[in-house]
Amino acid sequence: MVEAQSWTTRRMSNPRFDAAATTTPTVIDIPGTPPHSSASSNGKPFFLSSPTVSPSVLTAAIIAAWFGSNIGVLLLNKYLLFYYGFRYPIFLTMTHMLSCAAYSSAVINIAGIVPRQHILSRRQFLKILALSAIFCLSVVCGNTSLRYIPVSFNQAIGATTPFFTAVFSFLITCKTESTEVYLALLPVVSGIVLASNSEPSFHLFGFLICVASTAGRALKSVVQGIILTSESEKLHSMNLLLYMAPMAACILLPFTLYIEGNVLRILIEKARTDPLIIFLLAGNATVAYLVNLTNFLVTKHTSALTLQVLGNGKAAVAAGVSVLIFRNPVTVMGVAGFGVTIMGVVLYSEARKRSKLLNQK
After folding, report:
1. Which of 47, 156, 190, 227 pairs with 38 at a CA distance of 20 to 30 A?
2. Where does the chain cross the membrane (predicted)?
3. Whole-prediction pTM
4. What percent of the chain has pLDDT over 70?
């Protein structure tokens, strides 16, 4: 539970000499669904259809934007919730959800990046609501862990998502993988154990809630694959975000009022003396949406496999950037453990691909 409290601005402190405590970015982990034709005549939204931009340049720009938004939201969350002193992770997450709802509506209804889909039944609505609740648990835990553990350690924990996905798939659907796939998970787990034992900034509560965030992300992915199986109920990832975001905001509202009850009053008082807080919150919420938009664009212009590979690389890049900016202490064993975990994730991905190919034959 996050206690409501006034904060003291610490922007004048030098973050290079402070211990870091960071979180998983507020990313709504929404697996892509079968692509839909665009609303524009050439199959692309109007802002990506310029004939003067070569496909390779456009793809490179989208990938660069994906890296920038994913790492940017990490750094902004870190700065807000630790260095700036904004100790309200539930409220921060709610602003992300409101931003995602507003931007999703504009991108779908105005820009026409994908066709608008509608919720067709009360049953479908309840299924999306359940996904939103699981998502809230994951994101709030991730944002709260920001106050206790550094980005590098956070990214190492987040890389264990395949392990939790395999566990929940077995527990919920009794789905089993090949022996090769399970063996590939060993370095994923052993790497995080190694990193945990040698992490100078290790914090038990921060570690546990970050694990809970990672497990929640995996649980949502598995549950989504179960409850949205009907072709009539499947939604494009951008449409699913359009409906999940406001539901998530409504779920978070009573919690932020009960746990962080004075946050609005403090925010208004703070904005009167330091308007920067408004720009930080607005920028943070915008970048949080850009993470989801660029996830979709990378998949659209490359492939889901490319996005998965980039995700593995992003974890290492984000950890390195955070160490350079915030100067959180790291050890050789911690770096080695992180490396072992990333290697395990790559091996897991390759084993899954081979397993799928064998099953198709």
Report:
1. 227
2. 57-76, 88-113, 125-146, 152-172, 179-196, 240-257, 277-298, 332-351
3. 0.79
4. 85
